[in-house]
């Protein structure tokens, strides 16, 4: 990113922003989204003594699927998103669309 | 190269884990362990999971190791690898041990790194004199840096090598005699390997240097059949300990006396309480074992 | 070629036969050697699935495993610390032709990598609020103040609704009705033990980038305004302060003009 900018911000504007930030931050945290288990990252070790989770000092009985990656189609939750071509037209409301 | 007489001086015997049943500590159980404080003898962790800068893993391990004896089990040193030990990784192990001061540190009789790559599995060794020399040199290097005795775990294997000079028990005896390390006896691995190679588990057990055992591991295996319809056991840590392994464990305790015993479960992880029950079962075997004179 | 050379070459390439010099009691070497091959692949696939659970859910088990397998062939791990495995995964996904029907997949992977890195990032305490108040009381030096951020803080600019997609896969999130084709930026941070992801404007993301690069408050804020004229400095600071993401104040800017 360019280091140069022609803009300036006055000391008063900066102080106003920091002052409002401090008053917002002083409010009690919203309960929503503050769930105890909201780690976003699985509480799970990457290295483990079994194939189930990472490094194996144990084997796995499950032979992983060896389908040909180049012929596969993603079949997961992506099918449930509204796409720009979806009948609902939800995606057409998007201000920005993926280049195709 | 330094061998038997010196090795035991360089690597003083590590402090012992209590002769009780312990559990592998899984991140999924961190909060449960602190909330329920189960009555188990110790916890064991995989070293590599804690080679991170900060965050929940260190937070919870720090709290849990204030309340329980700790054992650290490495899965990444590649002691049997033909490549030199990764000095950076060895340093990470040393830093981790300095931080948590576990009662025990153990690694595997296996290789997992090759050239620049980490292959993420504990791969089998050909038991020949070149491998013996290399394994002992690597253990010397680790014990010298860590200034402690380590335990080496017997592997679960699925194939053997044509040109081996030793059988596995003899090889382990040689490694222990020459390097002064101890034995982490994985009874499940012993059983799995013996079935896979059509050997008698009890005869194998008796061939091992059991006086060097510093810890026992127990786990469950998966059972498959090979293309000839014969049993092929896979050490997947995905189920409770099998009855055949419990029986072999009892035979082991008769020979070693009460010994710190870890219940390992890595796949199909159940609730903590289930694992605590399995640890209780191990403690029943332990308490019915005579202390060896 | 010695045994470990031969063994490791064959493990990573599923189309080659097992190496010479191995045996088993009944001769069924193939099936038994396959256990090692399977361990290596399934272990690495699972390590990737642990780091990229949203990517996994977006494309499903079969596709994820096949894509991960292709990635592993190209980028086997180099470190035994598996939490660092797969940093090239997002770039790989971007170039993976079969995934092109899910164009936002690579950016979701980038976001998930930032989450893993935030999760394991070094610990740092939030700055004493009195220092912030003290800074507020000295408005003339405010512009030159450098805000130090928690090591887990990161931002990501995307042409897709990555934060919304990510959030939809947490807990009771709903993916129905989410339009992925909306420009969205995200800020990732670790507040205490929790990793949190916020959908933000590109100005806020640019502001975080500027602070991370050591720019002083005024310069970082001005650049954010250039990126997004609607950038709200007060809200951006409130987000960082209320999630303990500011860990220090440095009065002298060390930024070259």
Automatic annotation (TrEMBL), chain A:
Region feature (Disordered): 78-100
Region forming the signal peptide: 1-31
Domain of life: Bacteria
UniProt biased composition (Polar residues): 79-89
Keywords: Signal
Name of this chain's protein: Uncharacterized membrane protein
Organism: Pseudomonas psychrophila
Lineage: Bacteria, Pseudomonadati, Pseudomonadota, Gammaproteobacteria, Pseudomonadales
From TrEMBL, chain B:
Pfam families: MbnB_TglH_ChrH (PF05114)
Superkingdom, taxonomy of origin: Bacteria
InterPro entries: MbnB/TglH/ChrH (IPR007801)
Family, as annotated: Belongs to the UPF0276 family.
Protein name per its UniProtKB record: UPF0276 protein SAMN04490201_1688
Automatic annotation (TrEMBL), chain C:
Gene Ontology molecular function: DNA binding
Keyword match DNA-binding: yes
Domain called Putative DNA-binding: residue spans: 3-93
Name under which the protein is recorded: DNA-binding domain-containing protein
Gene3D superfamilies: DUF2063 (1.10.150.690)
InterPro entries xrefs: DUF2063, DUF2063_N_sf
Pfam families: DUF2063 (PF09836)
The entry's keywords: DNA-binding
Signal sequence range: none
Provenance organism: Pseudomonas psychrophila
Transmembrane segments: none
């Amino acid at each position: 990113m360019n280091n140069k900018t022609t803009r300036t911000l006055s000391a008063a504007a900066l102080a106003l922003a920091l002052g409002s930030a401090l008053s917002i931050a002083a409010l009690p945290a919203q309960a929503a989204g503050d769930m105890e288990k909201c780690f976003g990252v699985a509480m799970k070790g990457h290295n483990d003594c079994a194939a189930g989770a990472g490094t194996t000092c144990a084997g796995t009985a499950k032979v992983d699927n060896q389908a040909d990656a180049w012929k596969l189609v993603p079949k997961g939750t992506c099918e449930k998103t509204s796409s720009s071509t979806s009948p609902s037209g939800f995606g057409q409301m998007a201000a920005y669309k993926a280049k195709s | 190269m330094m061998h038997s007489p010196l090795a035991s001086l360089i690597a003083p015997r590590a402090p012992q884990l209590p002769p009780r049943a312990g559990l592998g500590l899984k991140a999924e159980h961190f909060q449960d362990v602190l909330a329920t404080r189960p009555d188990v003898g110790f916890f064991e962790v995989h070293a590599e999971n804690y080679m991170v800068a900060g965050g929940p893993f260190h937070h919870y391990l720090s709290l849990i190791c204030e309340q329980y004896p700790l054992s650290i089990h490495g899965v990444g040193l590649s002691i049997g690898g033909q490549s030199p030990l990764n000095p950076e990784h060895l340093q990470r192990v040393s830093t981790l041990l300095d931080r948590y001061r576990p009662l025990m540190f153990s690694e595997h009789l296996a290789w997992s790194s090759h050239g620049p790559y980490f292959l993420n599995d504990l791969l089998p060794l050909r038991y020949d004199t070149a491998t013996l020399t290399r394994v002992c040199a690597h253990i010397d290097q680790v014990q010298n840096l860590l200034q402690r005795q380590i335990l080496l775990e017997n592997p679960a294997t699925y194939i053997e090598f044509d040109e081996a000079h030793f059988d596995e028990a003899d090889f382990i005896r040689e490694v222990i005699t020459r390097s002064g390390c101890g034995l982490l006896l994985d009874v499940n691995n012993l059983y799995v390997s013996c079935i896979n190679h059509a050997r008698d588990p009890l005869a194998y057990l008796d061939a091992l240097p059991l006086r060097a055992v510093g810890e026992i591991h127990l786990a469950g295996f998966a059972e498959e059949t090979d293309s000839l319809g014969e049993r092929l056991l896979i050490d997947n840590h995905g189920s409770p300990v099998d009855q055949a392994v419990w029986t072999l464990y009892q035979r082991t305790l008769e020979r070693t006396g009460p010994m710190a015993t870890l219940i390992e479960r890595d796949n199909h992880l159940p609730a903590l309480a289930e694992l605590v029950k399995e640890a209780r079962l191990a403690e029943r075997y332990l308490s019915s074992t005579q202390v060896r004179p | 070629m010695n045994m470990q050379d031969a063994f490791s070459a064959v493990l990573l390439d599923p189309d080659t036969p097992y190496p010479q010099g191995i045996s088993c009691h009944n001769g069924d070497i193939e099936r038994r050697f396959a256990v090692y091959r399977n361990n290596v692949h399934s272990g690495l696939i699972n390590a990737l699935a642990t780091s990229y659970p949203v990517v996994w859910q977006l494309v499903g088990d079969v596709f994820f495993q096949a894509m991960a397998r292709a990635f592993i062939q190209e980028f086997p791990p180099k470190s035994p610390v598996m939490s660092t495995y797969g940093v090239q995964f997002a770039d790989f996904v971007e170039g993976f032709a079969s995934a092109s029907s899910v164009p936002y997949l690579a950016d979701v992977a980038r976001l998930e990598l930032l989450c893993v890195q935030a999760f394991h990032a070094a610990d740092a305490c939030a700055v004493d609020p009195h220092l912030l108040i003290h800074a507020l009381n000295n408005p003339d030096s405010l512009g030159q103040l450098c805000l130090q951020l928690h090591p887990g803080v990161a931002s990501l600019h995307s042409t897709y609704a990555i934060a919304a997609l990510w959030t939809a896969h947490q807990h009771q999130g709903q993916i129905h009705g989410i339009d992925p084709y909306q420009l969205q930026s995200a800020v990732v941070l670790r507040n205490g033990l929790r990793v949190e992801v916020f959908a933000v404007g590109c100005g806020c993301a640019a502001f975080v980038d500027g602070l991370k690069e050591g720019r002083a408050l005024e310069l970082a804020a001005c650049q954010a305004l250039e990126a997004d004229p609607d950038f709200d400095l007060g809200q951006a600071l409130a987000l960082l302060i209320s999630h303990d993401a500011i860990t220090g104040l440095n009065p002298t800017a060390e930024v070259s003009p």
